Amino acid sequence: MVAISSAPDQSRRSTPAPLLHSTVLGWYEANARDLPWRTAEASPWAVMVSEFMLQQTPVKRVLPAYAAWLERWPTPADLAADAPGEAVRMWGRLGYPRRALRLHAAAVAITEQHDGQVPEDHAALLALPGVGEYTAAAVASFAYRQRHVVLDTNVRRVFARAVTGVEFPAQATTAAERRAATELLPAAAETAATWAVGVMELGALVCTARNPSCAECPLIRHCAWQAAGRPPYEGPARRGQSYEGTDRQVRGKLLAVLREAHGEVPQARLDAVWPEPVQRARALDGLVTDGLVEPVAPGVYRLPV
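RESULT FIELD:
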């Protein structure tokens, strides 16, 4: 039995966890999107690639990049045999390109330490370069159908509303959140794996950050936030991610030139993409520091090899 609060500071009522499970699982069975990394044919490597790409990036932007990536590198060994700069090039405009370098590093480790097979063991997954707690749990759960708590932004938001009775979770995952999610996890591994993706899908399609479709939510009768009258968020200000005019935008423009060049690029070509020299230099220095760009001579740059 999982306690569901009608509001953060009010008395608690209880909704049986099996009822929550059956409700979400039934909704997911009827409403799940047909995504390539969810098919029976998707390899553990395909699942891992999708999880790296989906971090902070919408599904519709990931789909073409995911297909192109797996066509070129269908196994970790295929990627490991190529230069890390090629991973950055193929990452294209997905954003946060350090993920490409981390995925390449993970592919090298999988090839060298695990005979080219994405490990099943959660601890072994967690030990891979660029793999954090969320990604390790997601790959173990979705690729190998294991029982793990999978907490991404969508899942945390569903639990905050339905279980805790607040509009949004804390900015960073708390120990209390993890305990509550663990208590809610179904006992059977297969059911737990489907529950994890089902709650995630509910957060992505219905219990969204902006304009949630509460009338269409299968949990509306069990939702603590709904029962409390949908009280507004009272935590620290939630800042949107700006892009125009930021160093992120400048970095993206510089990387676009390098991706398209397929070779060394002189400073003059990079200077042409952004008029403000101090910000441009800062962005370029950041790319070099992050290992996304290599200086090969004074005023000459390339993607890492």
